[in-house]
């Protein structure tokens, strides 16, 4: 029973129990150099993995610039095949031009209402459609 307790205690402390005739000697399972080498190996492996993944992510992000160029090249090659069956050109819908005076009056009224000034105090000179 006493030997089992010593073995359990040594195992829980990470020590190796050596049985010699008449005495029990505890020695560390791995010496200091071996533990340091193992820790250094784990550190290099972990940091190497992180940097390899960062480089992979950087390459993936760089590919986002190249992908549209490749898509344009494939689209240009696909266009001649799509243009083969030609049909009659579509007639453009007639553009309906409206009287801009009504639009100017509505915009002027909206500006006058928001600024609390009379409509006569300013003049709408140009209207740019976007």
UniProtKB/TrEMBL annotation:
Its main location: membrane. InterPro entries: Na_pump_deCOase. The chain crosses the membrane at residues 45-67. GO terms for molecular function: sodium ion transmembrane transporter activity. It comes from the Bacteria. GO terms for biological process: sodium ion export across plasma membrane. GO terms for cellular component: plasma membrane. It is found in: Cell membrane. Pfam families: OAD_gamma. Keywords: Cell membrane, Membrane, Transmembrane, Transmembrane helix. The keyword Protein biosynthesis does not apply. This is Sodium pump decarboxylase, gamma subunit. It comes from Eubacterium ramulus ATCC 29099.
